[in-house]
Specification:
- It contains 10 helices and 7 strands.
- Strands 1-2-3-4-5-6-7 form a 7-stranded parallel sheet.
- The longest helix is centred in the C-terminal third of the chain and has 22 residues.
Length: 237
């Protein structure tokens, strides 16, 4: 991973919580001058999240974005109340560590480990819990009234994830390099920037298309495409 980061000329990293315990991570971050934009965490218990908050704080991570855990046989409302109650004690720990907490939207295919499957539901849950929002555009670009939802989400949006979708692709998770598919990423990114969003854009590149092209090659092309997109948005703005 370190060699790939160096090859890509990366300056900000997005990590998975298990990577925080890998030997040498802190040394690589320090030696290369990286900053950690985000850490993914699958929420289970408050104690588990506290451990991730502590580790994330040690590497200077800006935000932990989460899946909530599943709901079992609970209604959405009851599962949301349970999650809000469980995560509440961690808010002070995160504030003390200088780490934001956020919930991302994810496909209903992940219903065993998450309850927020639309951007609308994610915003509602984040508002109830007093947390931020991580917007994965791949999972919400087809939602009705998306510009209005983004406008509502932006004041608490901590991360925006970018990938693309090629119409007709059924090979899950079906992610494509930004610019290869049908998602109107540039218009959505432009709206976010004009609405005051100033955090990172995370490239989430997984699935058969990415594997076939090669993760490093796909990431390099994605970096180029998104950098050009951001430059156009900046010029237009």
């Amino acid at each position: 991973m370190a060699s790939h980061w160096e090859a890509l000329g990366a300056s900000r990293l997005s990590l998975i919580d298990t990577q925080l315990s890998e030997p040498g991570l802190s040394e690589v971050i320090s030696a290369q001058g990286y900053s950690v934009e985000s850490v993914f965490h699958l929420f289970d218990t408050a104690d588990g999240l506290r451990r991730v908050i502590e580790a994330a704080g040690e590497v200077g991570a800006r935000v932990i974005y989460m899946l909530t855990g599943g709901r079992g046989e609970l209604t959405w409302e009851d599962a949301a109340a349970r999650f809000c109650e469980a995560v509440q004690p961690c808010r002070d720990d995160a504030a003390a560590a200088g780490v934001a907490l956020a919930i991302e939207n994810a496909s209903g295919l992940y219903a065993d480990i998450h309850i927020a499957h639309t951007l609308r539901d994610t915003i509602e849950l984040a508002e109830r819990a007093g947390l931020g929002v991580g917007v994965d555009l791949f999972h919400c670009w087809t939602e009705a009234h998306l510009p209005a939802l983004l406008e509502r989400a932006l004041p608490r949006t901590e991360l925006i994830q970018l990938s693309d979708y090629v119409l007709g692709d059924r090979a899950l998770p079906a992610r494509a390099v930004p610019g290869d598919g049908a998602i109107p990423l540039e218009a959505l990114v432009a709206q976010a920037l004009s609405g005051g969003y100033r955090h990172g854009f995370d490239l989430e590149l997984i699935g058969p298309r990415i594997s076939l092209e090669g993760p490093l090659v796909a990431a390099r092309r994605a970096c180029g495409n998104v950098s050009a997109m951001l430059s156009r948005c900046e010029t237009a703005g």
